[in-house]
Amino acid sequence: MRRVVVTGLGAVTPLGVGIRRTWKRLLDGHCGIVNVGLRDSRFDAQPCKVAAIVPEGPRQNGGWTASEWLSRDDERKMALFAQYGLAATEEALEDAGWKPTASEDLEATGVCMGSGIGNFDEIYDTVVAYDKGGYRKVSPLFVPRLLINLGAGHISMKYGFMGPNHAATTACTTGAHSVGDAARFIAYGDADVMVAGGAESCIHPLAIGGFARARSLATAFNDDPAKASRPFDADRDGFVVGEGAAVLVLEELEHAKARGARIYAELRGYGCSGDAHHMTAPKENGEGALMAMKKALKSANLPPLSVDYVNAHATSTVVGDAAENAAIKALLLGSNGKKRPSDINVSSTKGAVGHLLGGAGAVEAAFTVLAILENVMPPTINLERLTDDFDCNYVPQQAQENTINVALTNSFGFGGTNSSLCFAKLIL
């Protein structure tokens, strides 16, 4: 198999527009979760009134203004999740120094960009308009703005990339699947470079209401939004929906070396599994998560002992965090792993950015790559109290310096879909 490395990063998140701004604010302990009652009065009747929203404002201040990234015509044609994906791609390609023009390079560059839900606003607004006014109230752009694969499609069209054009949609595992699938396109020789990531923007009263009815969301901190997402904490009571996008430029190692590209890390392993258990809840022992992580390490040809850090999926739900915690300990403790739970380094960045659903795995992959690059573990903010089963090092409240040669990042989704990515410092 050909080796795959990361040469570019880009992000649009609730902590700001731009991967560097996002990363700095993450390490500094900031939070992008706010009360959304002022955004739409329909949130007032809901049990959950918080969400992690991309801040508006000029790009130079880390805010989102669509006109700084898109023409008016493109903005009209593209759903917001796709706009975020395109902006993250622009940053990642600039970071990688990859803007090819030769036909052979364009043919060898592909896109793998997914979303979990996509353009929820468009569905709702069109249904209401159709119900009131019939066929003529349906926009001719309804379907193109609706389709999840148009995120990848618009990127391909803007830059002329003619390699694999792929869109995963596997709920909250989407971003990780997109990155892992893209790596395999390179490993198997279908492309030399892949733009890979996930994007989401579905902070709508109906979407929030649906998650709330499923009893998945945090409801106890509406008056203190920054405290609402609290992975691993004893007082966690649900996740917080977030929006944004992240993109990694993946590249075949020799291709990157030949053009003198800066290499962040190597994507060493990718593992997937299914719980075969329940629509929304994992098995309490974390069996599916454990299988995905085992497969990622097997793919990387690395033992559990080598793992220096785990960027957890941990969304701040009672059952989910406990199941993942059990899986991580089952993987990393034992004769081929760590001696004590306290030797296991785990953190969840969802306390700061919320749960970006289809974008989460890509954002967290980017965070994991930067953790390896800078030898620093991002904090789990709002982690104030642990129960007895949580006895690892969860990097509470403040970032910690630590040599990180190998790291895992996990993503799990409704339907029992699981994925784990293994990144490592490049060794030639």
TrEMBL record:
Catalytic residues as annotated in Swiss-Prot or TrEMBL: C172
Gene Ontology terms: biological process: fatty acid biosynthetic process
Highest taxon of the lineage: Eukaryota
Pathway involvement of the protein, from the record: Lipid metabolism; fatty acid biosynthesis
One MF annotation (Gene Ontology) recorded for this entry: 3-oxoacyl-[acyl-carrier-protein] synthase activity
GO cellular component: mitochondrion
SUPFAM superfamilies, per the entry: Thiolase-like
UniProt keyword Disulfide bond present: no
Keyword annotations from UniProtKB, A to Z: Acyltransferase, Fatty acid biosynthesis, Fatty acid metabolism, Lipid biosynthesis, Lipid metabolism, Phosphopantetheine, Phosphoprotein, Transferase
Span of domain Ketosynthase family 3 (KS3): 1-425
InterPro entries (UniProt xref): 3-oxoacyl-ACP_synth-2 (IPR017568), Beta-ketoacyl_synthase (IPR000794), Ketoacyl_synth_AS (IPR018201), Ketoacyl_synth_C (IPR014031), Ketoacyl_synth_N (IPR014030), PKS_Beta-ketoAc_synthase_dom (IPR020841), Thiolase-like (IPR016039)
Transmembrane segments: none
Annotated family: Belongs to the thiolase-like superfamily. Beta-ketoacyl-ACP synthases family.
Record NCBIfam families: fabF, PRK07314.1
Name used for this protein in its record: 3-oxoacyl-[acyl-carrier-protein] synthase
Source organism per UniProt: Penicilliopsis zonata CBS 506.65
